[in-house]
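Final report, results section. Input specification for complex C-07:
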Amino acid sequence: MPKRIVVELEDINMVYHTLENETLAIKNLSLQMHEGEIIGIVGPSGCGKSTLLSLISGLIKPTSGRVIVNGELVTKPLRNIGYMFQKDQLFDWRNILNNVTIGLQIQGKLNEQTLLEAKELLKSYGLEEFMYSYPYQLSGGMRQRVALIRTLLLKPEILLLDEPFSALDYQTRLAISDEVGLILRENKKTAILVTHDIAEAISLCDRIIIMSKRPGTIKDNIEINLSCNEKKTPIKLREAPEFRHYFNKIWKELDIHVQ
Amino acid sequence: MSNNYSKEHKDYIRNVKTRERRILYAQIFLLAFLLISWEVSARLGWVDTFITSSPSAIWGLFTDYVANGNLFYHIGISLAETIAGFVIGTIAGVIIATWLWWSNFLARVLDPYIVILNSLPKTALAPIFIILFGSGYKGIIITAISVSIVVTIMNMHISFKSVDEDKLKLLETFGASKVQILLNLIIPSSIPDLISTLKVNIGLSWVGVIVGEFLVSKAGLGYLIVYGMQVFRLDLVMMNVAALGFISALMYKIIAAFENKFTKWQK
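Structure output:
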């Protein structure tokens, strides 16, 4: 059964202007995302991965081409989109509870009901006792979990993840990406994950898009099918026999040479 | 304290405390040493007391001024002028900095003027203000404002602009308006910078007030200092300088207490 198309990029070109120069960041890029799909985007630095996320979220407009979300042309920042950044971007002066509810507050949706939801979510992520703590009192992994709760509370339909684990140490990173992967699957969220970590992309995503050097275009589009007998968690999936095959394929296509 | 700590921990605490105590003793000793040697040299005639005065003479003058209430009268006037200059200068500075943040065009237009005003010694403007606004409190307060406002505008504008791009982006994805961004992100994240600006402004406002009083006033600590100089009463000058030092240190401490209250979210 073909799934509903949620995000559609049609022949996108993106040019950045400065007084000295103009830079073609993205060239003739087209992409379709289906409901519940998790797409990974990998590519060399500066290939326009983050630009792509900003385009989908409506924060910036393409120079030419169209961004369509749920059948509608995107012209201003969308509210049904959750954005997660490299750093957790918690507000140091707000306690954890006030940090997770900031999106609700901005959108005027903060009420008893949503506040209760926020508290429940904090509880289910093991952060109950830190509800009234300040961000500096939490570890990196806990802080990124708070950022995730902040995003989920707005019930976004589409999640844009801009290297959300890259600021964490390796062990925490594995644990948190595993957790996020499960949450995305359970809630059937549509998501785009920009990452440098090939293994992370393979273990989390249904499909991986490899981007070329600037100007960014889609170089390849790889469907990921990992066999796993147990419950498919991202960490378990790393043990799948096909994992290594995908890894090598993507690595070759990225064609990275350190000069 | 609980007795469950190890011996090493207790030793560590004791060492830290001993060190702290020694620092305090040394500070008190330094002050006592300076005062005593000053007094001794004055009494033994090693220095000319007409010029240097002596701690005991200054203390005597101080008790006289306290007894007849004159000191509090002059302190009260200078303090009121300083607080007025400090409060108005800081609030107006923050408001202007907010305008500059709001409109990049305005910020660019005003940039060269602010740079020039910042490098100009504001006390040079004092005569102009006093002629424009009169030789009463108004002229003095405006001089005090002029000294602190430019630094406030510059520091706060820089602070507002240095907010993390991704935090702005985050609020934009929530659909925040510019006012919401200002209230929820720009202002709270600038509170530490605001407090360090306040600390600087306390001193700057005093500079403005004293200079203003030097020029025109009939009362206040600046007036007493100039009067003492004119009649060559160095004990009067020094007593006022000491009172000034004490009061500005006290004001600084009050701001520092605010700092602890408003920045408990920092490490």
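Chain B touches chain A at residues 164, 166-167, 169-176, 180, 184-185, 188-189, 191, 264-267 (CB under 8 Å). Chain B has two domains: 7-47, 59-262. This concludes the modelling results for the funded period.
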